[in-house]
Each structure stands twice: as C-alpha cells, then as structure tokens.
Amino acid sequence: MTPNAKRRKAPFFAVLMAAASLLAGCGPSPEVDTEFTPYVRKFEDEAGFPVTSDVVFRELDGFRGYCYPKGEDGRKQIWIDPESWREMASDEAAKELLMFHELGHCELSRPHDNTRGDDGDYVSIMNGAGVTSFVDEYVQNRAKYLNELFNR
After folding, report:
1. CA 65 to CA 60: how far, in whole Å?
2. In this structure, is residue 9 part of a structural domain?
3. Cβ atoms of 125 and 115 closer than 8 Å
4. What are the helix (H) ranges across the chain?
5. How far is residue 137's CA from residue 146's CA, in Å, rounded to a whole number?
6. pLDDT tens-digit series, residues 105-148
7. pTM > 0.90
C-alpha cells in the first residue's frame, strides 16, 4: 500500500468512527417536565454529565420526591409530588435541594446518609430529614454540600 493510499483511508475511518460514536450516544432523551428543566440543567453543570432519568410530576402519598429505579421504558424516573412542588413555589433553594437530592439517588446511586458532623449539621444533602427542615443549612453551606455530593 502506498503512503497516499493510507492517507485516503484515514479520513474515511475518522468519519466512520465519529458517526458510530454519535449513534451509540443516541437514544431516547429523558422526559423532563419543563418546570424541572432549570434544576436538571444546574445539576448537569455541577455534575459534568447529562441526566438520563425521567423527571416528572406524579402524586405521591407522604413523599415530596422519589427515585423510581425502573420505569416502563427501563429508565430511572424521578417523581415529584405536584402539591409539594406548589408548596415550594417561591423557595428556589428548596426546589433545588429536592431535585439535587432525588437526582443524587437516581444519577449517582447515592442512598440516604443521616450522618451529622461535629457541628451537628448533616454531612450530606442525601439525608432523609426532608427538604423543609434542611433548606437553611443547604443555603448556608451549598458549596460544601455539592462538593460532598459530587466528589464522594
């Protein structure tokens, strides 16, 4: 094979590999209710990877949110109770905390962690205390909590 023949094959091979990698990454996009989109985008920015779970409203009895391990399409689903979401209407920090907590379950496979530090504060947003009882701590220590969430 001449050197020129090798050069002609290289661009074809590069194009073929690029097309294959694009097709491999293609699949159905997750269903994300438009009200959740800003919080999902924030999570993606902080995490450095795209969310693959569906994030939808669903009535829940006794829970604000829930990570369901397998939906009908085989994809993880985050369910957010619509009444609870309405109750948090003007509390952006509470909404972010709820979304990051549930995304932590579905996207990072993180379980609840109720450990408290020496200062008495929870060490993780993955605690099971509930959003309303934890939002002030989250706001005051957001960087610390996000560091723990994504770098544990």
Report:
1. 7
2. no
3. no
4. 3-25, 37-47, 82-87, 92-108, 131-140, 142-151
5. 12
6. 999 999 999 999 999 999 999 999 888 788 999 999 999 999 99
7. no
Q: Are residues 108 and 126 in contact, defined by beta-carbon separation less than 8 angstroms?
A: no
Q: Is residue 1 part of a domain?
A: no
Q: How far is CA 33 from the centre of its chain?
A: 14
Cα(28)–Cα(125) distance, integer angstroms: 29
Task: Name the domain count of the chain.
Answer: 1
Nearest to 125 by CA among 107, 108, 138: 138
What span, in angstroms and rounded, lies between the C-alpha atoms of 28 and 22?
13
CA distance 30 to 121: 34
Complete edge-to-edge strand list for the sheet that includes strand 54-57: 54-57, 77-80, 65-68
- CATH code for the domain in which residue 78 is found: 3.40.390.10
Is 146 part of a structural domain of the chain? yes
**Structural domain includes residue 68:** yes
Written as one letter, the residue type at 130 is G
